[in-house]
Amino acid sequence: MKELLQQFAAYNYWANNRMTDAILQMDESAHQQHVPNSFTNLYATILHMWDAESIWWQRMKLHEKLLIPSQTFNPNMKEAINGLISQSQLWADFVASASEMKLLHVFEYKNSHKEIFRQPLNEVVLHVFNHGTYHRGQLVTIMHALGQTKIPPTDFIVWSRKGKA
User: Fold this and answer.
1) For the chain, how far is it from start to end, CA to CA, in angstroms?
2) Which residue ranges form the domains of the chain, and what is each CATH number?
């Protein structure tokens, strides 16, 4: 279990870096350009990804009051990307240092509707990484709609073929 989660954590960090590096190469005006999708633009999608990783991190750390990045301050794209990458690194470091027992620990948290849930930490960790994959796919769709042709592949198999760099 731990080895698989470590791979997903490292992959999540790598894929977020690849995708956000490509976004930062784009003209800044494209970051806010509206495209029909779950989120209206690249910036809103990146901000949501950071918010989600941060919220789950705080839940796991049993914070009573969650500090949601998008509600705490108004970052520009570079700051939002730095926040997402830093949060992804925290997840990777956590999984690398966690014991199997820690990853199996059941903890209690409240969702955004104040409903209480109890789940093993490994399920939450896997959800965080899967959530990132889902939204990286949306980033690709938005980038295609904006006419971008240099979009890096971020599939798990690409990461694993490259020696898990």
Assistant:
1) 21
2) 2-161 (1.20.120.450)
φ and ψ of 72, to 5 deg? -90, -40
**Residue 108 bridge partners (DSSP):** 118
Q: C-alpha distances in angstroms, 17 versus 54, 61, 100, 154? A: 17, 24, 27, 10
Residue with tokens 């995708």: 19
pLDDT tens readout for residues 137-162:
999 999 999 999 999 999 999 999 98
CA dihedral 94, 104, 49, 129 (to 10 degrees): 90
What's the pLDDT tens digit per position in 65-123?
999 999 988 999 999 999 999 999 999 999 999 999 999 999 999 999 999 999 999 99
75: three-class secondary structure by DSSP: coil
> Cβ-count burial of 71 within 10 angstroms (0-12 exposed, 13-18 middle, 19+ buried)?
exposed
Alpha-carbon distance of 19 to 46, in angstroms, equals 10
